[in-house]
Amino acid sequence: MSKYLAIMSKKLMSNLTYRLATVLNMLAMSTYFLASYYFWQALIAGGARPDANIRDLMFYSLLSEIVIELCYSNVAGLLEGEIQDGSVAMHFIRPISFRLECFSLSFGENLYWTSVFVLPAFVTCALLVGLPVPASAAHGLCFAVSLLLGLLIRFEIGYVAGLMAFWLQKTWYLDWYINGAMLIFGGTKLPLWFYPKVLERISRFLPFRYVSFEPINIYLGRCDIQGALLGLGVSAAWLLALHVTGRLMWSRAARKLTINGG
Predict the structure, then answer these.
(1) Can you tell me the distance from the alpha carbon of 127 to that of 25, in angstroms, rounded to the nearest whole number?
(2) Which of 16, 60, 203, 216 is the most exposed place for a label (fewest CB within 10 A)?
(3) 217 Cβ partners below 8 Å, 6+ apart?
(4) What are the distances in angstroms from CA 134 to CA 56, 129, 215, 219, 230?
(5) Considering the entire predicted model, what is its pTM?
């Protein structure tokens, strides 16, 4: 594990060297926070959701940002250039796991973004409107497990999509599609509570809602414990399916390079 922690640490420290960028990013998040605050106020005033309140909606918005930032991964962007120049072959002979290397690089960079870009706004939200507490101790425990599963699901989605670079060559658009799917079916910006029934039902058959929406939904007590446990089961199933898919794709990619003489 020490080598992966070293990779994570170096990636984090490399981002911290740009102090002006750090300050500007914090200001950008403050602007986003204020925009979100007035947006939710207008939505509540319009009666779009009578059972919603500004505290829960701000908590949802900021926690969703933390989850998305913390486990964002652009494996496709990493692999595209290496596949074109042939250096990707080095990943198959290194004595470390490529999956864990990607996770360490992503998490190190994302920890920086979360610390300087999201957490300050989270503290501001706590001071202005307060933070809700879990609906119950059981909800809090289910939330913690669901949140961990959601973080891992988000990474696995990026990892599986990134491995498509072995077959597609050009992958710049994959990240756009993933973010679009997260936005529409994962409720990263607008909670699925506001969605039409059809879209909400479709989201239940896709992994995106289990990244951030489902953990926050559990935390706020918008489902009972039975529903929370069902959500945990579905999240675990999606994580297993994505993990197995990633392993199979990596194995196929290795054979593909061998066949092509790589």
Answers:
(1) 20
(2) 16
(3) 191, 192, 223, 231
(4) 11, 16, 11, 5, 18
(5) 0.81
Smallest CA-to-CA distance from 150 within 259, 228, 226, 85 is with 228
Question: Do 249 and 165 contact (CB within 8 A), yes or no?
Answer: no
Confidence category of residue 230, pLDDT binned at 50, 70, 90: very high
φ/ψ of residue 74, rounded to 5: -120, 65
Measured distance CA(54)–CA(231) in Å, rounded: 25
Unique residue bearing structure tokens 């979360």: 114
Closest by alpha carbon to 186, among 205, 172, 167?
205
Which residue's structure tokens are 């990244």? 211
Do 228 and 146 touch, CB atoms closer than 8 A?
yes
Q: Which two tokens stand for residue 124?
A: 């501001």
> Do 7 and 104 meet the contact criterion of CB atoms below 8 Å apart?
yes
Structure tokens at 220: 């706020």
Taking residue 146's Cβ as centre, other Cβ atoms within 10 Å add up to 27
Inform me whether the pLDDT recorded for 143 exceeds 80: yes
Decide: 49 and 129 in contact? Cβ < 8 Å.
Answer: no
